[in-house]
Specification:
There is one protein chain. With 157 residues, the protein is mostly helical. 78% of the residues lie in helices and 0% in strands. α4 (70-104) packs antiparallel against α5 (109-142). It is elongated. The chain starts with 15 loop residues before the first helix and ends with a helix.
Length: 157
């Protein structure tokens, strides 16, 4: 699991809103910094790490939601939640596939076929969800979502 980055440059003279922006931006960078690896699909832990990052970001956003207008906050939070939901869909299937494959050798031969069929179905589901995730992340990247998110935070300092 990726370690959360240290939030820099917060001091007692910062307003709560200023501190919120710094904390949320740091959590966003932690999450968004993994999007290329998730899109590329080359790093199996990238989905897990990005999911953990999305949880940290959502907690920070929920903690400081009163620093932002409700309407604009909801729109930003929905986007982060959409990414998190798809990350969860992919990761949950990855974990289940791993567990089933690890236990398969412990089963009697007559039960292995059923497990193999189920694993095959899970892989197909996971691949479909992974494609959805890649499409969403690619779309967000093409719309410079990271800059839009930073701009959103900058308007609330």
């Amino acid at each position: 699991m990726a370690k959360a980055s240290t939030v820099r440059a917060i001091d007692p003279s910062n307003s709560v809103s200023e501190a919120a922006v710094k904390i949320i931006w740091t959590r966003f960078e932690d999450m968004w910094g993994l999007h290329d690896a998730v899109i590329g699909g080359t790093d199996v832990e990238a989905v897990h790490d990005m999911r953990v990052g999305s949880r940290r970001l959502r907690v920070a956003m929920q903690t400081f939601r009163t620093c932002f207008s409700e309407r604009s906050f909801k729109a930003q939070f929905r986007t982060v939640q959409s990414v998190a939901d798809l990350l969860g869909e992919v990761r949950d299937r990855d974990v289940l596939i791993d567990e089933l494959c690890g236990d398969e050798g412990k089963l009697p031969p007559e039960q292995r076929h059923a497990v193999q069929a189920y694993v095959s179905d899970l892989k197909a589901e996971r691949d479909g969800k992974r494609d959805e995730l890649r499409l969403l992340l690619t779309d967000l990247r093409s719309r410079a979502y990271d800059r839009a998110f930073l701009s959103y935070l900058g308007r609330h300092r």
